[in-house]
């Protein structure tokens, strides 16, 4: 029962990746695409943890940690670029 | 090393405290109990925190502040859950019901850390997103504007958080 | 699992095409970041966590910042107005 | 033990549902700031619940999940706030339904003062 629910949860998260990708392709401005990228990164953290769970390897969690630390770096870089700073 | 105030025991205490927090994160991540490993990591954490700790002051910790901090975390979590139900309710309707606008509110907080936490809390609460901060005025994007004036918006958005943050950082 | 690998490959190709076709350079840099995000998850599925970690650090953090810095520098020398 | 795993799986399912709703909000909302509202709030609670649920489902990883939650919650509002500020500064338009924009006047004044500083 619990295993089935976890699998359903991972499929729903994957659907979220697809939906946010559509906004990434459509998005009229660079800032819209950056919002979509931010959302995709946060969903990917959960997706990586799901993959680590299904393959049962603790080392895969390190990739999720790197994304957790660095996910806001690219967004802040784009924001500084738009403001004319950097 | 910006040790402008010179060496004090209070600063040494802050450095050791930061190093202990860093080692705590490492142990939570790796579950290691090896003594040599912990010794090396503890030394590295001390070096890093000595490089980056600038302040030599520790805020006065009282039981009241601790109690208010715990209550604040609970209040914030309830606000996050409420905001998510609100967003979910809006998103799944065929015609999205929004009435957005950018309003200005004013804060009474003085401490910079308190203002930062207030801005981040506003971003996580129902229907509001802090767009810009100029002095003690926050410019907030509100998804459903019910009050355009400064006083009314302040009462509706920040008053609940300020009650706790004033005690914690006051 | 095989299906997920194929989907991620298609997503990488789409993101790369978006990056090539965009006229706005900042948006193209963001699209390049998306390519490396998908590539990182793909490396993870192919059982290479070390490569995935490097791709995450370099692709998401460093290359975005350096690309934007380079775009900024180039533009300020070529455009004479404002 | 089995009950805790089941509770963890249900929490993870609710969290992934919020992640999906956040992505749907990013797709459906009419302008950048409303997209950001959906994208920040829903994904924050979604990742908290998903990671917490997996931590309960696979109990050996509970502390790793807490570290991941700490990083996700602290970095998420910061990136959203900085991007919203930059977007308003470069003049990305709000949707037609907008009733009020107090920041536009303040930014106009700031642009004037910057121009005066640069001019001499």
- Number of strand elements of chain A: 0
What structural class do helix, strand and pairing data of chain B support? Answer: mainly alpha
Beta strands of chain B, count: 3
What ranges of chain A have pLDDT less than 50 throughout 5 or more consecutive residues? Answer: none
The secondary-structure class of chain A comes to: mainly alpha
Strand order of the largest sheet of chain B: 1-3-2
List keywords for this structure.
heterotetramer, A: 86 residues, 3 helices, 0% strand, flat, D: 120 residues, mainly alpha, 4 helices, 82% helix
In short:
The complex is a heterotetramer of chains A (86), B (170), C (82) and D (120). With 86 residues, chain A is mainly α.
Give an account of the 3D structure.
The complex is a heterotetramer of chains A (86), B (170), C (82) and D (120). Chain A is mainly alpha-helical and 86 residues long. In chain A, 86% of the residues lie in helices and 0% in strands. Chain A has helices at residues 2-26, 30-55, 61-83. In chain A, helix 1 runs antiparallel to helix 2 and helix 2 runs antiparallel to helix 3 (61-83). Chain A is flat, with a radius of gyration of 15 Å. By secondary structure, chain B is mostly helical. Chain B folds into 2 domains: 9-52, no CATH class; 63-169, no CATH class. Helix content of chain B is 59%, strand content 11%. Chain B has helices at residues 9-30, 35-52, 63-91, 112-124, 150-157, 159-169; strands spanning 101-106, 128-134, 137-142. Chain B has a 3-stranded antiparallel sheet. In chain B, helix 1 crosses helix 2 (35-52) and helix 3 (63-91) runs antiparallel to helix 6. The longest helix of chain B has 29 residues, at 63-91. Chain C has one domain (2-78). Chain C has helices at 2-21, 25-45, 49-78. In chain C, helix 2 packs antiparallel against helix 3 (49-78). The radius of gyration of chain C is 15 Å and the shape is flat. Chain D is mostly helical and 120 residues long. Helices cover 82% and strands 0% of the residues of chain D. The radius of gyration of chain D is 20 Å and the shape is elongated. The mean pLDDT of chain D is 85. The chains are: A mainly alpha (86), B mainly alpha (170), C mainly alpha (82), D mainly alpha (120). Chains in contact: A-C, A-D, B-D.
